[in-house]
Write a sequence for this structure.
């Protein structure tokens, strides 16, 4: 999903009872705390009735008082928490430490934030890699070079990663998937409307500019830019669309390496695997065989000059943040200002905190936990998760559209979910990673290579279901389908999503709905395809599967009708998983809240407990965005915008209609509401 003060989650849900009923909540708040029932009443827009536009009612005041800063493309409640987190992280990083890992994070940050030193070095730190690309003299040497560039973060031509096998989730295997595009999706290359054509022309000029800034002549850069567009467009045409990529069954193609070689004979896959230091393996998953066929055609038909131009561009693009100001600013101008409408660059210290978190996140995260997340908070959050799980259990048992056999399988899966809360129990060892002050680009390249090597070495090994897939300060949460696990980092378990001092109804609407959202992902349109062990397996009866598809189709049609930025429709199929989780999650959170003894059933600040619950939920999603960013996300993001994450959900809930006494025909009451969970 998305400051940091060490506030325990007192008031969270207790563990499930042995009789299967929902547990009671050990709420400790007292009457005086109820003044804090809502974050601030001035977040509301009382000129709009909640039954007409609930998002505007709950967030209109906040939006009016929180104009979008020029260095942002979105400003919302997630960003509020992130900024508070960053204040703590900045203090940590700017303080020397005797702990080697923590000091390594500080050194990485120090080199990154020193823009003057980066400017003085000019493009010298990039020269050896440019020379490496220039030395490519035959296509047969491309695999070795490409493995090296991938280790630096340049995802040219394709992606190679590791993942649990779709068919045996206990085993890590290599995965070959579409890649090689600098623009966000294939549609940017394939659409032929005037706006898309103009954007590609602007992109071509941007590629030309950056190649000029990194040492090429203007004439050569123009030719290189044309080559880049030709290769990337060919790769885009072979790339599946984003909706197709969401279906795990369509991405499950275990392939022997000898068969992969037959699919793409122009590229020596064994040479690539050896150069990437991948453990001996005979089988990899090829997520899109059609893409590999297209990739082979691109490599076979492209001249060495064009391939070198394409690789130079991807090297520069991956390195731009740690290159001189003119290059970083030019990269921002296209990829942020043009694509997303962000008017000014984010301050460098904030960008460098994010980059440090990416490269040495657990070293930084351990220090963050020491300052901002205690054992009591972790224990209370775990109880909250248990309470939401108990609500999900009751919801599955009560589903009148599911066969008993399907219910039993669903309940078995629910019981198998591993709960990760706060931070890992075992911290990563960064001692092999060399970090040097004054070497920003070298640190980045070595950091990417270190992380990549760490991940690729897992290929052929058993999956550790307790692995964390994000760092502790992350203002996010996730559900892993293959690992059957939910992760709630310490970074998101903070105000305004949770505050131990305020009314529990608001807490359950806010952090409770986020927790329940992630759990529901195990049973959304993708999650339902995985069994309790994380394997792709159809555990549904034919009738239940049909009923599920009918219910999710209702949601897909509902959200596809919503428009953002005045002219762009949300893709209801692309956002289906998140919409399913939003709708199911809010209902589960409400069930969990209502099951426990509340401190009081009376109104606070004029709002009933149920009303406060829904307001708490809506205020998680208050935000302002640039129109460009809205359009950009509509094509690439699996989430709907904040307005529809609120209005789309509450309009499907009779509980909301009752709480606010909405009349028949009110805009926030759908005549035929959609419901999966």
């Amino acid at each position: 999903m998305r400051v940091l003060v060490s506030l325990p989650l007192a008031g969270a849900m207790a563990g499930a009872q042995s009789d299967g009923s929902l547990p009671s909540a050990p709420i400790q708040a007292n009457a005086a705390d109820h003044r804090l029932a809502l974050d601030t009443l001035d977040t509301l827009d009382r000129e709009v009735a909640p039954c007409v536009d609930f998002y505007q009612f709950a967030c209109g005041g906040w939006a009016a008082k929180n104009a979008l800063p020029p260095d942002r493309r979105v400003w919302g409640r997630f960003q509020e928490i992130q900024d508070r987190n960053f204040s703590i992280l900045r203090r940590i990083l700017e303080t020397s430490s005797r702990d080697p890992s923590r000091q390594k994070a500080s050194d990485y940050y120090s080199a990154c934030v020193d823009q003057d030193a980066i400017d003085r070095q000019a493009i010298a730190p990039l020269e050896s890699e440019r020379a490496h690309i220039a030395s490519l003299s035959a296509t047969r040497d491309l695999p070795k070079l490409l493995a090296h560039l991938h280790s630096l973060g340049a995802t040219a031509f394709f992606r190679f990663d590791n993942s649990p096998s779709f068919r045996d989730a206990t085993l890590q295997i290599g995965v070959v998937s579409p890649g090689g595009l600098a623009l966000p999706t294939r549609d940017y290359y394939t659409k032929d409307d005037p706006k898309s054509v103009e954007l590609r022309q602007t992109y071509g000029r941007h590629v030309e500019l950056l190649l000029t800034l990194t040492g090429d002549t203007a004439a050569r850069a123009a030719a290189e830019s044309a080559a880049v567009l030709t290769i990337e467009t060919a790769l885009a045409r072979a790339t599946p669309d984003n909706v197709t990529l969401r279906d795990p069954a369509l991405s499950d193609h275990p392939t022997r390496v000898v068969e992969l070689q037959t699919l793409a004979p122009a590229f020596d896959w064994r040479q690539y695997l050896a150069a990437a230091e991948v453990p001996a393996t005979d089988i990899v998953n090829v997520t899109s065989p059609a893409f590999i066929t297209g990739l082979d055609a691109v490599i076979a038909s492209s001249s060495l000059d064009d391939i070198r131009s394409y690789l130079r561009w991807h090297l520069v693009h991956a390195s731009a943040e740690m290159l001189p100001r003119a290059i970083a600013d030019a990269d921002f101008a296209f990829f942020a200002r043009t694509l997303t409408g962000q008017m000014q660059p984010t301050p460098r210290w904030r960008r460098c905190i994010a980059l440090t978190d990416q490269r040495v996140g657990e070293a930084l995260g351990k220090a963050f936990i020491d300052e901002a997340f205690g054992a009591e908070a972790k224990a209370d959050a775990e109880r909250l998760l248990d309470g939401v799980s108990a609500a999900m259990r009751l919801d599955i048992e009560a589903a009148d559209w599911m066969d008993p056999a399907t219910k039993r399988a669903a309940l078995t899966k629910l019981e198998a979910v591993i709960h990760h809360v706060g931070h890992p129990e075992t911290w990563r060892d960064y001692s092999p990673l060399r970090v040097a002050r004054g070497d920003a680009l070298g640190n980045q390249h070595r950091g990417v290579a270190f992380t990549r090597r760490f991940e690729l070495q897992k290929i052929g090994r058993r999956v550790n279901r307790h692995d964390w897939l994000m760092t502790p300060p992350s203002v996010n949460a996730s559900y892993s389908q293959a690992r059957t696990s939910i992760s709630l980092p310490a970074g998101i378990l903070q105000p305004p999503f949770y505050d131990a001092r305020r009314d529990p109804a608001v807490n359950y609407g806010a952090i409770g709905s986020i927790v329940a959202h992630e759990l529901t992902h195990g049973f959304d349109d993708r999650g339902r395809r995985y069994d309790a062990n994380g394997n792709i397996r159809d555990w549904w009866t034919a009738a239940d599967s049909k009923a599920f598809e009918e219910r999710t189709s209702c949601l897909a049609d509902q959200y596809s009708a919503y428009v953002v930025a005045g002219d762009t429709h949300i893709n209801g199929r692309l956002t289906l998983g998140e919409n399913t989780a939003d709708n199911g999650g809010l209902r589960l959170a409400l069930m969990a809240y209502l099951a426990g003894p509340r401190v009081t059933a009376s109104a606070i600040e004029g709002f009933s407990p149920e009303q406060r619950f829904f307001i708490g939920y809506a205020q998680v999603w208050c935000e302002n965005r640039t129109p460009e960013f809205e359009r950009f996300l509509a094509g690439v993001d699996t989430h709907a915008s904040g307005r529809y994450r609120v209005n789309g959900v509450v309009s499907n809930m009779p509980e909301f209609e009752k709480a606010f006494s909405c009349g028949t025909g009110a805009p926030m009451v759908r005549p035929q509401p959609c419901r999966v969970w």
